[in-house]
């Protein structure tokens, strides 16, 4: 196992040592970020393509490291769904490499001028995109995130500190070893990417408190992880991915269309954050729509939590639950006002949908509902960076500051005002 | 004193009560924010203009409340410069009202579409500006901030929670009373603005921990206040206004121009965050430039901290100090690399300037220096929302997330993706 080359932590050491290790890695990342900000697009793409080739070429060692992780996970009795997320195959390794190639093909956001003007006194202003600097990512089992996050952060000129799951420690270490080796081969600082120790939570704590060294931390994972990061951080954070999403079937809905969209919103991939967790059915259409939608869901094995016959009795907890499984809550609401009020109370600001043929209702819903994405007559499953055409996604922000919704390359940038003059001074 | 109408805190009550009061006000603000987001531009402008008139009409009661504050401050022996910031006059009250009229004249950022596309499957996406929701502002003595902050927050569709200085408590209470009365008269929720108790720091603590109710807190004031807010908050924050700004006089500088720009950068208003605090003089030009610049500064009463004869001896603390006074540090540096390294080490990411006639040097400096604003041959005093043509400013962000540099109306907004379809579902 090659962990020591990328994470010089002694696994036997205590929290104070982990903090020192993380601070040291953050300091190196900060230094690296100065030169990464100056890289040309050509150099960055060259590194990304070389890293893709290197990962494919090292497929055997990556799979061997992953086999270690799988063996440990099996010995620990980890459930099959998690094992599947952890497991790499030859095809998955190729997929990881292809992800880097896709990022290489994307537009470089750095240097883009997003505003500018000439002032009456002749000063020429331009506001241009610059990297954030050092980005920390805290994530769970899937090793592909290690490479994806590096690719997106690197293309947008940032150094990245990765804190993956301990269950994927061997896979992550091997992948980061390959990335750092490629960087060095290309004459770019290897500190563009580093893997933090993952033995316990102390490395997360050190990362989220490295003020002055880390510019943002993005947690990707369950609600518990996200909440712990966001409430304890002293560095800026971006909340991602908690999705208690609703589909509101309005009085003027096309019931066949509603059934199709609800079914897709729930069953396409029940474990992801854009899956629908509650269906709100307008009472004026409930007698017709509710049994049809319920039957379609049940025929696909979905358990419905609600107050109608044949459903699991619903409690308040069902309105709050992000099931992430083949479960859905169903509720009859009086009207659009009641639907919006329910969403205001229980939604997490991720994705909310209305099914209707009524223009005024659709417009009112999109204006009043406060969420990262509001859909009219479309599946909640579309809230996704790839689907939105970003080409890559680092997560889906459910906060309002900095970025909201799917985050691509531009969301990992900041801006700088550059002002050119010829001796202007400001009057008193 | 009319504080009870806007801040129902019993001044004799303990911290737990203050927390309850703040949470209650935050909850009301959150509820108000739902309807504020839906106001038309016409309604918002109508309220702003009516509030301006109401403040002018109530000038007498505002000045009487301010006289209370001044009397308390004098009794407490507060220094004259702070008294001046606290003091209102008839002309200053008119200035406050005119500020609201200026905001009414600005473009409404809400509803602006900043991106959009049609996907191959026919889904029509648009990304539109929406309010942040509830904005908290923590600020120091000047009562005009109370009205300015309301104006900017209201025009951008937000509810605002104001936590002003206890020294301005009477002035702030009277101003907020007028604002709330005007809102009610116009049929808009008065909870668009509320003043928090200011007896002690506990209201700040409650505000910055009101997760789920407050969308962002912006501290405006000294470094101590800003640091306390940013490191203890569990809600998102925006750091503002700490400015350790440098002017680097490059080897190829026009010395007369350099002298003029340095003088303006330091002496125009030494107490504001965009004032220059250190001059870095390239050693290749130092023999000529340094005495000329030093003499010009000294002739205006500026005390120079440095290693040359006639200067106050400089220590490391001088490189770190944000003097905010008629003091400046001066240092001879080897070259542009050394200037950039000094700024990397000591700068606060606010405004950095280079004086040079050399295009390559100017370009390299603007690209390499990591700050909200980088000036070429221009005074650091230009980093300002009014100067940049924003029409109004809520502060100058020195962080990289969400907003960087002067913040106007668009910086108090978030975005929402609105997606229109006709039954699209996402393939597996």
TrEMBL record, chains A, B:
Keywords: Amino-acid biosynthesis, Cytoplasm, NADP, Oxidoreductase, Proline biosynthesis
Aldehyde dehydrogenase domain sequence ranges: 23-300
Entries under SUPFAM superfamilies matching the protein: ALDH-like
Reactions accelerated catalytically: L-glutamate 5-semialdehyde + phosphate + NADP(+) = L-glutamyl 5-phosphate + NADPH + H(+)
Pathway of action: Amino-acid biosynthesis; L-proline biosynthesis; L-glutamate 5-semialdehyde from L-glutamate: step 2/2
GO MF annotation, one: NADP binding
Enzyme Commission number(s) from the entry: 1.2.1.41
Alphabetical GO biological process terms: L-proline biosynthetic process
Record's keyword annotation contains Nucleotidyltransferase: no
The keyword ATP-binding belongs to this UniProt entry's keyword annotation: no
Subcellular localization(s) per the UniProt record: Cytoplasm
GO cellular component: cytoplasm
Annotated Pfam families: Aldedh
Family per record: Belongs to the gamma-glutamyl phosphate reductase family.
Function comment: Catalyzes the NADPH-dependent reduction of L-glutamate 5-phosphate into L-glutamate 5-semialdehyde and phosphate. The product spontaneously undergoes cyclization to form 1-pyrroline-5-carboxylate.
PANTHER family assigned to the protein according to its UniProt record, in alphabetical order: DELTA-1-PYRROLINE-5-CARBOXYLATE SYNTHASE (PTHR11063:SF8), GLUTAMATE SEMIALDEHYDE DEHYDROGENASE (PTHR11063)
Protein name: Gamma-glutamyl phosphate reductase
Organism the protein comes from: Gordonia desulfuricans
């Amino acid at each position: 196992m090659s962990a020591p080359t990328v994470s010089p932590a002694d696994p036997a050491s205590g929290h104070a040592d982990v903090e020192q290790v993380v601070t040291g890695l953050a300091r190196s990342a900060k230094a690296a970020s100065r030169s990464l900000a100056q890289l040309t697009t050509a150099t960055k793409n060259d590194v990304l393509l070389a890293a893709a080739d290197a990962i494919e070429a090292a497929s055997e060692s990556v799979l061997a490291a992953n086999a270690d992780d799988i063996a440990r996970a099996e010995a620990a009795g980890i459930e099959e769904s998690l094992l599947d997320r952890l497991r790499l195959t030859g095809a998955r390794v190729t997929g990881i490499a292809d992800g880097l190639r896709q990022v290489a093909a994307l537009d470089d956001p750095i240097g883009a001028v997003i505003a500018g003007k000439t002032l009456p006194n002749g000063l020429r202003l331009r506001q241009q995109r610059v990297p954030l600097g050092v980005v920390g990512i805290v994530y769970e089992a899937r090793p592909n995130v290690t490479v994806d996050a590096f690719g997106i952060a690197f293309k947008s000129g940032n150094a990245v500190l990765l804190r993956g799951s301990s269950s994927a420690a061997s896979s992550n270490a091997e992948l980061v070893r390959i990335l750092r080796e490629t960087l060095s081969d290309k004459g770019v600082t290897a500190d563009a990417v580093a893997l933090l120790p993952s033995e316990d939570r102390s490395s997360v704590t050190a990362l989220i408190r490295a003020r002055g060294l880390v510019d943002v931390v993005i947690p990707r994972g369950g609600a518990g992880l996200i909440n712990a990061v966001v409430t304890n951080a002293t560095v800026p954070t971006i909340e991602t991915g908690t999705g208690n999403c609703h589909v509101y079937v309005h009085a003027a809905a096309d019931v066949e269309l509603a059934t199709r969209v609800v079914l897709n919103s729930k069953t396409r991939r029940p474990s992801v954050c854009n899956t629908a967790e509650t269906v709100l059915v307008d009472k004026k259409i409930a007698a017709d729509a509710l049994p049809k939608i319920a039957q379609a869901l049940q025929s696909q094995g979905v358990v419905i939590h609600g107050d109608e016959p044949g459903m699991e009795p619903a409690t308040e907890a069902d309105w709050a639950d992000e099931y992430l499984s083949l479960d859905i809550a169903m509720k009859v609401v009086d009207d659009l006002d009641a639907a919006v009020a329910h969403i205001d109370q229980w939604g997490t600001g991720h994705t909310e949908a209305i099914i209707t043929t009524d223009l005024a209702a659709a417009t009112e819903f999109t204006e009043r509902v406060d969420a990262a994405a509001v859909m009219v007559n479309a599946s909640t499953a579309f809230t996704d960076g790839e689907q939105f055409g970003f080409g890559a996604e680092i997560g889906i922000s459910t906060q309002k500051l900095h970025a909201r919704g799917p985050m691509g390359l531009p969301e990992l940038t900041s801006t700088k005002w550059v002002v050119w003059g010829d001796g202007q001074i400001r009057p008193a």
